[in-house]
Amino acid sequence: MSNIVYSICTYIDKNSQKKFIDTIIKDYKIFYEKLNEKVDFKIVTDIPDVVNEQFEDIYQYYTKNNIQHDHPKYFNYLKLKENGKDQFPKHKNALKAWNTKFYLIEEFFKSNYTTMTYFDCDLILHEPPEEKFVPFPEILSFQARTQNPHRIAKEHIRVTNKFLPNIEAKKYVNMEFFYINKNCCFNLKEIINLHEIYSLWEKDSLFLREETALTYLFYKHNLFNKLQRHPPEGFHVKYKPVENMIANTGKWNSKLKYIESKLK
Question: CATH code at 138?
Fold first, then answer.
């Protein structure tokens, strides 16, 4: 087998986690079955030990060195209560899940697989045109989005401009889904690794968001012009009832409503 599909589903609420696996990720598998394509699937349901250890280490690094944060949002998510428990367990878990994507990329490059496809565990995939769709092309595919010039710059853009002042960053990376082929990866194996990512965390806690770190790395290594679009792509699930019964209840509740509707 030369192709693998990864997804990360590490919700603290294991009952909800199972529902996402039984619905959304099940649909991913059906998608490839319809294409009559043989792929391996790996679903990560627990944060890898190495990622947990890195988060413990970086929190100690920030506190022991009294690091001052220009934008402390993600650092705050790491804070502990007086009893040693997390102040923001769901937010911290989300940060860990986001950075597990780098762990999977590193694992992929150590494997015998030729291609990897990654999907977040809460996407509805678009059906690609059958006559044009090549499931495993020799390309590198991450979705690049353009910063709206009329809005405050996203943290991806701000931190890239901070550390690469000679570059006028206008695009940023989205990591909800991506595709890597080892035959056309532009040395990505050397660019993305957990050691490199940790060194970015030491520079600025905004790099704790995986898309911010990757945006910076893609500008640093001039990779934005190498990226190509590759279906299947998707969008985050959102429950849309006939009557807006769950208005203003938040994205998470909306996702759960969608999952429940799929399970009926």
Answer: 3.90.550
